[in-house]
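=== Structure Prediction Worksheet ===
Name of assembly: unnamed complex
Input type: mixed (protein and possibly other molecules)
Chain count: two
Listed entries:
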Amino acid sequence: MLVGAVSGFLAVNETGSLLQGVAAGVAAGLAASALHAFFTVTLHANQIISGLGITIAGTGLAALLGRSVVGLPPRASFEDVDVPLLGSIPGVGDILFSHHVLVYVGFVLAPAVWWVLRHTRLGLHVRAVGENPAAADAMGVPVTLYRYGAVLFGGALAGLAGASLSLAESPGWSEGMTAGRGWIALALVIFATWSPLRVLLGAFFFGALDVLAFRAQIIGVDVAPTVLGMIPYVATLVVLVVVTLLGTRRRLGAPEALGVPYVRDG
Amino acid sequence: MTSGVRRSLRATAVQITAVVVGLALGGLSLAAIGVSPYDGISSLLEAAFGSELALTQTALKAVPLALTGLAVAVCMRMRLWNIGAEGQFHAGAIGATWAALAFPTGSTLVLVPLMVVAAMAAGAAWALIAAVPRALWGVNEIITTLLLNYVAILGVAYLVTGPWRSAAGLNFPVTDVFGPGARLPALGGGLLHVGVLFPLVAAAVLLVLLQRSRWGFTVRMIGASPQAARVAGMSTARSVVGIMLIAGALAGVAGMVEVSMSFGRLRQGISPGYGYMAILIAALAGARILGTLAISFLFAGFVVGGFALQALGVPQSFVLLLQGLILFSALAGTALTRRPRMLGRPPGRRGPAHVAKEEPSTP
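=== Predicted Assembly ===
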């Protein structure tokens, strides 16, 4: 995400084109996740260690690449776009339909990912590889290919998220500008018990708390912003304990083979 | 025995090669941004290990890294992922600060031990929040310890912007400066203080406990095979809680050393991510105690040397890239020597999804 942010910003700075900025962000996310995929899928390295390594190395790399543009105003950034008609619906219109383009991309992607996972052959294969790679392999699903594909897709989305930060949300680049959002995303997935649709809802909830933490004092809510900031984490913790207590992995929604490298037997 | 020695030698060879390859890759990335790789890497190493002053600073920086590294490594021994050393570090800092603020005029002889105990208790308590659900119901400790990090960091932010905020802080969110009794005694004539002994003492105690005690045998047994340990009538739940308490206490002490010596008060940003570097360190060390000490010292040297790189226009965060490159070199080296499970992956540990059903601790 950080690598995506800085790459997106650098590309826009070089080219003045937002489209190329987004493309660069996505490409950077892809590159980082390709490394992760190679180590975890091909070399069977531990995913936690590799993921953490990517995070730490990516933070350093982004700082290195972005050192010359810290604090510079961008040459271009995304403007808010009112969606025609929908944007003029009273109440809802302002809230949902007057953002920069990438917000709509997020709105569309979550249900799209859900639909693909749920209703297509591709999605069935992805889920099969996640639940039981040996069975999927036996059915002729190329497990390694699917795993690479999934990791790369995730990396591209994270790169896109980074680009949306540096090009739209708070245009510019500063070290550590993602402020741990990648980790919140991890919490979000568990909070949403692995459903892309609930991820979208959860993102609204977490985002609302984020905004509330900023504005609490202005609107006269007497709660320390730091305490509000804890809520997503504590809420996720509670959800995790509760779903685990409810007992079955099925309820938790985690794919059976999550985190397990697949080695074909003899 | 011989095969054990050979394996350990091979692991060490992989580690050393990984450091060299990582530094070389780091040099290449410096070259890519137009900084001479030779100047860059040599000034980094010079500033880290090149003089008595450099070694002193590296030793001091190694204290929080080694203590949190050990906190992660002991858990790895039992196939537990302690991602929460960062949070336990912050909890320890809060505990130590409580003691220092409660007894501002206390003498060193009383206050320092009290701060250490308070930090250990706070760190252990923080680890306990994740340990109990893990032991009783198999709640995934990877996620809970990670989440608790953020709660602890925000807890520090809450305290220094709220209840513990100093009136003398000139609008900065900090606590009062601790009294002179809250500082660790100096060691020798220079900058060293007794804190540098803490990781050494901790490592010695852990080695004796793991190798010689009945409890250590249980831990090693569970690490080798949870099923066999259960059949032998060992309580996994109790060992999980025990090892997490020890880990939390270790990381907590690291927090105490930092607020006592590096800052002299509590404020935000007391850790540049020690608890996360600790995971890389423990993984690189293959969860071995002495290896963890050695690699902490190396990484501490990089952190110290990173400041020297700023003179060449390279941001301090370059060090993070370097650490990542060394890690990936080691991961690749381990895969190449066909021992994919040596590195940070205790044999047989499966993914988080399996944790829940792997060890039902209540029959």
